[in-house]
Amino acid sequence: MNRKVTKAVFPVAGMGTRFLPATKSIPKEIMTLVDRPLIQYAIDEARDAGIEEFIFVTSRGKSALEDYFDAAPQLEDSLQKKGKTDLLAELKRTDMPSGAIAYVRQREALGLGHAVWCARRLIADEPFAVLLPDDVIAADKSCLHQMVEAYQETGGCMVAAMEVPNDKVSSYGVLDVNQDLGSIVSVKGMVEKPKASEAPSNLAVIGRYILNPGVLDYLDQMQVGAGGEIQLTDAIASQIKTEDGVHGYRFRGQRFDCGSKTGFLQATVAFGLARDDLGDDFRTFLTDFLELRRAAE
Ligand code: G1P
Q1: What pLDDT, in 10s, does the model give residues 40-78?
Q2: Which end of the chain is more exposed for a tag (fewer CB within 10 A), N or C?
Q3: Bridge partners, 11 (sequence order)
């Protein structure tokens, strides 16, 4: 069986209403964490994991995303002439070769499963990754890279997984664990956004997936699930009974929910502190700032 994963889907059609008014005129995925747009973190992670084809599922108002990944000859010329080689190198790192990115539109907001289904023709009959750019994961080895390695052993479908507090399970897809082998768990059920009292565990799905194309056959049926949406979780659950089944993967790394304001602020602090060029100054500022606040209380 083919276990090489070279295609990834990035569902980026959401309206980003939680970040209004910022998202009135810019896509949420262009919002910057330190100095790079959210989407860049997801792209870098995918490239690091060996992805070669990047499929964006977009919607109206997302053209800034296409421009971001396009060549910028005027800007490059001007940096070149001014001898700003560092900035030029930084700009080059965002370059995507022609043909590497494809865009398909999700015409109606019918759910994450539907967004992935919109990419079906480009995915064709191959295993593929899905990355939700809202979930930003800081890790020594990127989360998707870890999963691609684990997937060589398991095949089937694999979802990133993480324990969350019981009162938060209703925001996630939740795994019903069959066998817990530590970093890999085999899954016997999945529920999208269960009530805390009905959740099978507190092991939540985080936005990194490696899926087999069988998921698309389920999505073809357009079955509506939790919240009246076509859910990716349900499509993955349909694969549990297949030969290789579904596995959860507890990744090593820290995940930030950049779909929420608090998570975005936390990620900004963590990524700012981790930067060689900014970390020391930023740490001093934060320490002084907190001390002053404490003294004033
Ligand atoms: C989506 C998925 C959910 C998953 C979550 C991870 O939900 O539907 O299963 O746990 O991403 O971030 P959303 O956050 O889009 O509501």
Answers
A1: 999 999 999 999 999 999 999 888 888 888 888 898 999
A2: C
A3: 57
Given the CA of residue 259, which atom of ligand 1 is nearest to it? Answer: 14
What are all long-range contacts of 17-22, with beta carbons under 8 Å and residues at least 24 apart?
Answer: 18/259, 18/260, 18/261, 19/261, 19/264
Give yes or no for a contact between 37 and 83, defined as CB atoms under 8 angstroms apart. no
Ligand 1 atom 8 nearest Cα: 173
Indicate whether residue 192 lines ligand 1 (CB < 6 A).
Answer: yes
Encoded tokens for 48? 């690091």
Q: What is the pLDDT of residues 203-228, one digit of tens each?
A: 999 999 999 999 999 999 988 999 99
Q: 223 CA to middle of ligand 1, Å?
A: 17
Question: Is the dihedral angle over the CA atoms 23, 33, 103, 71 positive or is it negative?
Answer: positive
- 7-259 maps to CATH 3.90.550.10: yes
Alpha helices in the chain (DSSP H): 38-48, 63-68, 73-81, 85-92, 112-117, 120-123, 143-154, 214-220, 232-237, 261-274, 279-296
Average pLDDT over residues 34-41: 94
Structure tokens, 183: 């970093």
Is 109 in contact with 233 (CB distance < 8 Å)?
no
Mutate to test the pocket of ligand 1, among 18, 106, 132, 164 (most ligand atoms within 8 A of CB): 132
Ligand 1 contacts CB of residue 234 (under 6 A): no
